[in-house]
Structure formats: C-alpha cells, structure tokens
Amino acid sequence: MAEARKVVAELRQLASSVAEPVRTLTGLQGSADDGNVAVVDRAGWIRANVDGFRVVFDPLVQRMTENSGMPQPGSVITAVGSRVTGMQAGLILAYLASRVLGQYELFLPPDPDAPGKEAPAGRLTLVAPNIVMIERELDVNPHDFRRWVCLHEETHRTQFTSVPWLRPYVQELMTDFLLASELDPASIYDRLRAAADAVGQSVRGGDGESLIEAIQSPRQREILDKMTSVMTLVEGHGDYVMDAVGPSVVPSVAEIRAKFSARRGSAGRIEQAIRRILGIDLKMKQYEQGSRFVSAVVSEAGMATFNKVWTSPETLPTRDELTTPTRWLERVGGTAALGSAD
Q1: Residue ranges per structural domain of the chain
Q2: What's the predicted TM-score (pTM) here?
C-alpha cells in the first residue's frame, strides 16, 4: 500500500510539472484545470469510461425521442441494437482496461455532491497499475517512463482546454455516429453477419475489416472518416510533443521510445487477432501517421503555421491531407514545398 501511494503521489506531481514544457513547445496555453488529475486502478478506469458513455448517450436519447426515432422499449430492434452497441463497448473496455496507460477524459458527469453545478470540462486520468506493469516489463527508468506518459496525456489536456470548439465538435460527431445506426432487422442481421466474418478473418490472420468497422452502417462510415481524421491529428500531435519535449525532461526518452515501439510490434498471435478484431492495429498506424503529419508541417512551416489546424473544424486536415501535408499547407496558406509524409 505504501508503494502504491508513492506511485500515485508521483504521477500527480509529474502531471503538473510537465504542463509548462508542453505549452512552451506547442504555443497553446491550456486552462487552469491543472489540478484535475485522477490516478486510478483498472476498475476505476472502466467506471470513468462508463460514466463518459452516459454523458454521450444522454443527448442521443433526447434527440432520438424528439425525432420520434426511438424504437419501442422491449422490441426486437431495441434488444438486438442494444446488444450490438453493448458488444462494441464491452469488447473495447474489457481489452483496454489492462493496457491503457492514461487518457484525457472529455465527457464527465456532473458532480453528485454539487447538484446544479456544470460538469467539469475534462480530466487527465492515469492508470497506475498499467504504468507500473509496462515500466517493469520494459525494464526502463520508472520515473522517466511515468514522466513520458504524463507528457502525452498533458498534451491532450492542453489541446482540449486551448481549443474551445474541439470538445463539442468531437461530441457532436460521436452523437451523429450513434444516431446513424440502422436499427431495422435486415440491416442488423447483415451487420452481425459481417461482424462474424471479420472475427473469422482476424483469427485467421487476414487483413479484412475490424469488428468495429463491420458493425457500422454506411452513414456511420462517413462520420467515422471525420472522427478518424481529428483523432489521428490529436493523437499524432500527442506523440510528436511527447518526443519533442522528451529530451529536455526525460533523460532516457530514446531508450523508452525504442523499447515501447518494439513492444507494440512483438505481440503474440492471439494478441494480434484481438487487435485486428477491435481495429487497434489500424489506430496505431493512424497515430503514427498523425505524428508524421505534425512533424512534417512543423519542420517545413513552423509551429505557428501548424497551429492553424486549431482555428476551426474546417482547418482540420482531411484523411488525404494527413498523408500529403502539402495539400493542407496549400489550403491554409502555408508553404507547399513539402513532400508526402508517407
């Protein structure tokens, strides 16, 4: 218990100490919520995410009711639809609970002890058991590794507290994504059959769709393109900042990055199948792509030009622009002498 308390105290301190280096590098000022840090165990992480799902689902239920699109309680459509949604959420939470190191929680419920008070804008959450597990597995300096993890998550806090439209934009995309579900029995049957095919392909080592992709409706795929673009940028920016700031505050950052990247690529067959089923391998590639985009734009045009991405949803890079930064630079008025980031 004493060891656990020491880890929690250090993670809280590190999360606060890396805020200024992140803001200095990015030019983003963030907000005064530096004290809003939760250090949790795996069960606490799952509870936090379930609470976040509720915050997202509340406006969804309201909009479906207003649009008379809510299926009758107890109907076959409601039962099967809820099972599909529950399967998506349950699979992801069960798999990630023992792997996630930290996150910036965008969607928090109101404080039950402060009725009528607006819910917090966000919270930086660190999963202590997972951080300790990975630092031991990698055999790296634990204090450096904890600071390195905090750098990534602090970047997300800085992003979302510096850009006022970003959080509601992501929430709106998520709500639209859920509203775009096709709840008629024929569509549900087709999607469940596609999901079964996706699981079979993944277990056999194929390169087919992930389970999450297979369950989506055509409209959801369109919305997911936008969600993927913004999250690729946000995560890639986090990776870029983590490595750019790292040498000044994390002495062993090169060793940590090398070992961490090697670990990602050394998963066993069952682990690889689970990653393919849930689309996690695809997301890792997207985050790497986002980091290359940020690095390419900053190298060519500077951080001030890159920060034009935060002007509005219209200045976010498209999926094509993420792979070819020249297109984004041309569109926002930056330099165009840059090659593809592929």
Answers
A1: 2-317
A2: 0.73
